[in-house]
Amino acid sequence: MSTTRTGGCICGGVRYAVPEPLRPINTCHCRECRQMAGGPSSFTACDAAGFAFEQGEELVHWFAGPTSATGGERGFCSTCGTYLLFRIPEDPLLYFSSTTLDDETGLRVEAHIFWDSRAPWEQPDGLPTIDGYGDEGLAAIYE
Ligand SMILES: [Zn+2]
Ligand SMILES: [Zn+2]
Asked: Which of 6, 64, 74, 91 has the fewest CB atoms inside 10 Å of its own CB, making it the most exposed?
């Protein structure tokens, strides 16, 4: 039996449901994520087909990052600005901010990605670091 996790944005306008199992968290240190999130972003992922908006899909504004090597788009709530989603064309996974999940999921950070793009003040914490997406792309990191 599969269980479902729920989450949403600060204002409550956007609500979503995702099926478990969720992927471990990877913290992204690319400049676009840091600007969007106010610090490294902590994203997990699910099969893109399994992600469902419960409400507020029309509030999500998609923004194509101008420096994204993958043509990735960032989705945020147009009312409160919460950074919710990241998607790459043709990618089987949808990435979403673990900080927007309602409850403790047991997920933990597995690695730091785009470590080569980190801010000068970010310090290593002993977890694995990957420069960029590594050699095989983002979906491979979340397998
Ligand atoms: Zn909102
Ligand atoms: Zn990033």
From this structure: 64
Between the CA of 134 and the centroid of ligand 1 the distance, in Å, is: 32
Protein residues placing their CB within 5 Å of the ion ligand 1 = 9, 11, 13, 77, 79-80
**Digit-coded pLDDT (tens) for 116-137:** 999 999 999 999 999 998 888 8
Can you give the chain as a three-state secondary structure string? CCCEEEEECCCCCCEEEEECCCCCEEEECCHHHHHHHCCCEEEEEEEHHHCEEEECHHHEEEEECCCCCCCCEEEEECCCCCEEEEECCCCCEEEEEHHHECCCCCCCEEEEECHHHCCCCCCCCCCCECCCCCCCCHHHHCC
Give distance in angstroms: CA of 33 to centre of ligand 2. 4
